[in-house]
Known about the structure:
The protein is of the alpha/beta class. The protein folds into 2 domains: 3-93, Metallo-beta-lactamase, Chain A (4-Layer Sandwich), CATH 3.60.15; 99-135, no CATH class. It has helices at 3-12, 54-65, 82-85, 88-91, 100-110, 114-121; strands at 17-22, 25-29, 36-40, 45-48, 72-76, 95-98, 125-128. The strands form 2 sheets. It has a 5-stranded mixed sheet with strand order 1-2-3-4-5, with helices on one face. The chain has a two-stranded parallel sheet with strand order 6-7. Strand 1 and strand 2 (25-29) form a beta hairpin. Helix 5 (100-110) packs across helix 6 (114-121). The termini are far apart.
Amino acid sequence: MTPVDRLRTHDAEFEKTVFELASDVYLAVGFAASNVGMIVGDDGLIIIDTTESTKAAEDILAEFRKITDKPVTTIIYTHSHRDHISGATIFAPRVVISSGKLLSSLRFLSARCSALNRSVLDTATIGIWMPRAAK
């Protein structure tokens, strides 16, 4: 088998599929370099990671819409690498969901950079969605 044939065989292992992992828990595989999770809640969706491109995110969201039309209420990033965060605007076009550290950083930067203020803070609702453990 040639190297090209091996790559084609490898690609076939990652067909675009949405798996139901448990009741109301789904995983989109094969659409992008990283997988995207969806948890269906009573009032909306939790999206886990958002892929490396808006095109992949659009394809995944279209598949998720075959399952539910509930709004995305929360995005959770497993980490900040580009292949996990770049499709966020497709899932939630006007919302940035962040930890307190990101919120503080954006406020610090916006005070020093009017372009950031216009492009991020004026177009986004920034909230802290993950409760902290009681001390």
